[in-house]
Amino acid sequence: MTTYLLAMSVTAGIYALMALGVNLTWGLAGMINLGLAGFFAVGAYTTALLTKAGCPILLGIAAAALTAAATGTVVALVTARLRSDYLAIVTLGFSESVRIAASNEIWLTNGSDGIAGIPGPWRGVVSPLQFNLRYLGIVLAVLAVVFALLQRLSRAPFGRVLRAIRDDEDVAAVAGKHVLAFKLRAFALGAAVLGVAGALYAHDTSYVAPDIFAPLLTLNVILALVAGGLGNNAGAVLGAALLVALLEGSRFAAPLLWFLTPAQFAAMRELLISGLLLAVLRVLPGGVLAERAGETAR
């Protein structure tokens, strides 16, 4: 049970990193990014290929961040003039394109069979319990550093400009701000965080495959961010923790619903989770930790 709880805590930490990355582009800059699973996949495959070839894990994670950031810059350039729903559709299409490419480019990604045997720190040297405990420490350390940097960034002039662009980019442009440049930097930074999350996932599970990066992953992270508080980094972290707690905690309700088949219980879990999240948003439209009105003035 302890190993399971530690593994779920690692998952929550990775979800929190993803939520932070999306919060930078959507919560601060107002760019609805539904391509997060694509950047997550780019990071995971980059570190998987490099470390399987003998590169150190730290180098693989750094390369994952850089590759995801470069990919994010390209996507931002292509979608620079798109707004709202159009941007969401295109970024979602990008994410699906990455997944389909990973399924078909067997020479690079091994197709639907995925890449197994990705090295992890201390894997095979310590027990599974010790590995999960140490890896949780790594994930929490990375999460703390990313959170602190994004908090500082959001309160800096850069963050205030992003909020101005989110509220009305035409006004920001009239005020002399280079809107495109700020959007590119926000998208690249957000994608880099997602790439790091993907790399940490790959080294935790030692396996990546296209099915992992299905749209449901994007939906879960978006739900976590919205429920936690869009535009608030603390809300992104809290939302991720709550979502993983709901997803995993609901599994233990099976004995109480013994009359349901496994398929019916799975559907009931999804309904329960959706209902609880809707209830949260009904009572707290801005999320559990809504962005405060005076945040931009800090």
String of helices and strands: HHHHHEHHHEHHH
Distance between the termini: 43 Å
Radius of gyration based on Cα positions: 19 Å
- On the 0 to 100 scale, the average pLDDT is 89
Strand order of the largest sheet: 1-2
- Structural class call reads mainly alpha
In total, how many domains does the architecture comprise?
1
Shape: globular
- Helix amount: over 70%
For the sheet with most strands, the description reads: 2 strands, antiparallel
Strand element count: 2
Question: What percent of residues are in strands?
Answer: under 5%
Report the uncertain regions: none
User: What's the number of helices?
Assistant: 11
Q: Can you characterise this structure?
A:
The chain is mainly alpha-helical and 298 residues long. It has one domain (2-213). It is built from eleven helices and two strands, in the order αααααβαααβααα. The chain has a two-stranded antiparallel sheet. The model has no long low-confidence stretch (mean pLDDT 89).
Main features:
mainly alpha, 73% helix, 2 strands, 1% strand
List the helices and strands and how they pair.
Layout: H1 2-28, H2 36-52, H3 57-78, H4 84-104, H5 106-109, E1 115-116, H6 128-155, H7 157-174, H8 179-205, E2 207-208, H9 215-228, H10 233-249, H11 262-283
Antiparallel strand pairs: 1-2
Task: Provide a quick synopsis of the model.
The protein has 298 residues and is mainly alpha-helical. Helix content is 73%, strand content 1%. It has a two-stranded antiparallel sheet.
